Amino acid sequence: MTTPRNHDWLDLAGKNVVVTGAGGGIGFGIAECFVQAGARVMVLDVSADLARTAAEKLGHGAIGVGCDVSSETSVQNAAEHLVRELGPCDVLVNNAGILRPGALATLSLADWNALLAVNLTGVFLCSQKFGAQMLARGRGSLVHVASIASRFPQGFSGAYSASKAGVVLLSQGLATEWGPQGVRSNCLSPGNTRSGMTAPILAVPGIEAQRVAMVPTRRIADPSDMGEVAMFLASERSSYVNGENISVDGGFGRTLLDLFPRPGFMREDVVGNS
Ligand SMILES: NC(=O)c1ccc[n+]([C@@H]2O[C@H](COP(=O)([O-])OP(=O)(O)OC[C@H]3O[C@@H](n4cnc5c(N)ncnc54)[C@H](O)[C@@H]3O)[C@@H](O)[C@H]2O)c1
């Protein structure tokens, strides 16, 4: 558990919040934030065991249900389960995502399709099924976990960047179609974040220090960093934010020009190696 903060200003207490892929990693951290803010959380994960264990850990009436976001039937069942157990959805956080690395020159169609099925089609299906409950009541908020790879291509990561760019445009389409009916849709784009996906990379000796040195905020993000932004986007405090994609990357995406060697004006020339 992260240190609880005061989230009263977000007014999320009692809201029904669904977080996909919340059996671990960023999704669990997001779910934890919403629980601390008094929301009623449904954890979805392709692993029913992970979903149930996560819900038990969260407590406060959280429920955990197995759901494969790439399956229409599975998502429909989860949406009906929510209504039976907690009532209609107020907030959907589309977080489930996978990475299938590979060179585009040799990537198999199976890997391409498998990744898009979860990362992009999953967002479409969950938005449609849970969004229907929002549209029926004329209010709700969709928050999609994209990636800084939605703005910059990440080499040798197969369909990952294309899937995340697709999520951003899908979100913008939802924002324009559903905005008039009281439903907003926004993305948050994590940079380097601790999770099951990144643990093996950060465990390689020296990698964490190298990565930290490249981020202006000088640390790797925790899942709660995404949770705080997800809660803001979910809440009425952001009621005039619609169709946006907020980078949560410690400033990393703004460092492109610093990659050019510029003798005499490099950081070490001006302020030393801090
Ligand atoms: N960790 C990072 O640095 C980082 C950076 C940018 C974006 N992201 C994005 O954040 C999201 C969460 O990633 P993470 O790092 O926590 O990954 P993770 O692998 O640690 O957790 C992902 C969770 O999603 C679940 N999942 C996988 N396929 C699913 C499916 N078909 N249906 C339902 N659940 C499924 C997994 O079981 C797992 O519990 C992903 O969309 C990822 O692309 C992560």
For the termini, the CA-CA separation is 31 Å
Query: Which spans have pLDDT < 50 for at least 5 consecutive residues?
Result: none
CATH architectural designation: 3-Layer(aba) Sandwich
Query: Rg, please?
Result: 19 Å
The coarse overall form would be globular
Number of strands: 7
CATH topology: Rossmann fold
Helical residue percent band: 40-55%
CATH H level, superfamily name: NAD(P)-binding Rossmann-like Domain
| Domain module count | 1
Bound ligands, named by name, code or SMILES: nicotinamide-adenine-dinucleotide
**Main sheet record:** 7 strands, parallel
Class derived from helix and strand content: alpha/beta
Along the chain, the helix and strand elements come as: EHEHEHEHEHEHHHEH
Q: Within the largest sheet, what's the order of strands? A: 3-2-1-4-5-6-7
CATH class: Alpha Beta
> How much strand?
5-15%
Summarize the structure.
The chain is an alpha/beta fold and 274 residues long. It has 9 helices and 7 strands, in the order E-H-E-H-E-H-E-H-E-H-E-H-H-H-E-H.
Explain how this protein is built.
There is one protein chain. Helix 1 (25-36) crosses helix 8 and helix 3 packs parallel to helix 4 (109-137). By secondary structure, the chain is α/β, with parallel strands linked by helices. The mean pLDDT is 96. It has nine helices and seven strands; from the N terminus they run E-H-E-H-E-H-E-H-E-H-E-H-H-H-E-H. It is globular and about 65 Å long. It has helices spanning 25-36, 48-58, 72-85, 109-137, 160-178, 199-202, 207-214, 223-234, 267-270; strands spanning 16-20, 40-45, 63-66, 91-94, 140-145, 183-190, 245-248. The protein has a single domain (8-270), classed as Rossmann fold (3-Layer(aba) Sandwich), CATH 3.40.50.720. Helix 5 (160-178) links the parallel strand 5 and strand 6 (183-190). Nicotinamide-adenine-dinucleotide binds at residues 20-21, 23-27, 44-47, 50, 67-70, 95-98, 118, 122, 145, 147, 190, 192-193, 195-198.
